[in-house]
Specification:
4 strands
Length: about 170
């Protein structure tokens, strides 16, 4: 038997000045296969097949979330490890190689988001639905290229306070 774990909190909308930095922070935490959560909880400890973290921003609000499924006996250790990784990001700047990897990943994903007419249409619909400026994606690209390890640590301190999160476990 497994349990599903969802940890999340309310966050900023896609017009907020922190939105771009939060996207980078959540990618570091669990937004790609080499992320902190995947490396620790999947690769090192073997608690889950996959774990992800993301940031979603809409017109009037947003949220950040972490989700996974694990065997019932690993629920508490997985939750502990999630907060441990958040704490590490609050207390130590990202190593330069990891920052370079995350930036390259995010820039590649942004390029992929515009690969083909259907993908481009989806991006345009997002702009229209959220009343965003035409240069929204260019600004995300520029921000991603220039964010520093100290900026990421700042966002972790601002958004990774354990008492702000809700935890949902569905299972045993």
């Amino acid at each position: 038997m497994q349990s599903a774990i969802y940890i999340g909190r309310a966050s900023v909308n896609n017009r907020h000045e922190d939105f771009k930095g939060l996207k980078v922070l959540m990618t570091v935490l669990g937004g790609y296969f080499g992320s902190r959560l995947m490396s620790n909880i999947r690769e090192e400890k073997g608690y889950t097949y996959g774990i992800s973290a993301s940031s979603s921003g809409l017109r009037h609000g947003g949220h950040i979330s972490i989700s996974t499924q694990t065997a019932n006996e690993f629920v508490a250790p997985v939750i502990d490890e999630i907060y441990k990784e958040m704490n590490i990001l609050q207390n130590a700047p990202l190593p330069s190689e990891e920052l370079k990897t995350v930036k390259n990943y995010m820039l590649g994903e942004l390029a992929r988001a515009f690969d083909g007419s259907f993908s481009m249409t989806d991006r345009y619909i997002y702009l229209l639905a959220n009343n965003l400026p035409a240069d929204f994606y260019i600004k995300q690209l520029d921000f991603t290229q220039t964010i520093s390890a100290e900026n990421i640590q700042h966002f972790a301190c601002k958004y990774f306070n354990k008492e702000d999160f809700y935890e949902i476990v569905v299972g045993k």
